[in-house]
Amino acid sequence: MAASLNIVVVEDHDALREVTVEALRGMGYGVQGVDCAEALSDELKSLSVDLMVIDLNLPGEDGISLAQCVRAVQPEVGIIMVTSRGQVNDKLLGYESGADIYLTKPTSVEELGAAVKALARRLKSGIQHDFVLDSTTLLLQGPDHSVNLSSKEAMIICAFARALEHRLAYWQLMELSKSDSISKSTLEVQIVRLRKKLLQAGTPNQPIKAIRNEGYQLCIDIAVI
């Protein structure tokens, strides 16, 4: 099970963006793809982003300018630049603009995945999380208390942790049960029980909130190991 990591891929080539997004999702990450820097301009402050994969040759604002903006708004975010610009001066400019890793196209899915994994380890090593779910023991560790989760509860937490903005629709949560018979009322009971366990671990009030006619949102950050 991959540790929780939310990634944004900024690539204007539609086919390449789709392949990259699907490949990273297949590795267990939460991934969103956009085709230009402007698509993120109003969201950078609200998105829960751990890492960005940025193409430099973007329409409008280019990848260098975007990386500088990201560093100013969210300095802790990991940045991987993927570009056809392979000259030494280009790489130096990329690193000076905020890149953690600079990859030259053509880049294989395997190489990008290895870069993401390596950068994720570095990001995790410098971050302390108040709440950590051990996916093997199913133990949720809080700052003062730890609670045991059922396998289904742990699965729900993992799905929330990986989802963009920690939001899941009703149908996504129902799919996790692997049962066609589950109803919204049954799902609500599961969420109520999970809320109680999260509160026992020391989370603030309303750790999971309902989104009207849509689903639920996890309102805290939980690291999954």
UniProtKB/TrEMBL annotation:
PANTHER family: PHOSPHATE REGULON TRANSCRIPTIONAL REGULATORY PROTEIN PHOB (PTHR48111:SF40), REGULATOR OF RPOS (PTHR48111). It comes from Solemya pervernicosa gill symbiont. Residues 120-220 form the OmpR/PhoB-type domain. This is Transcriptional regulator. It comes from the Bacteria. The keyword Phosphoprotein applies. Residues 6-120 form the Response regulatory domain. Pfam families: Response_reg, Trans_reg_C. The modification 4-aspartylphosphate is found at residue 55.
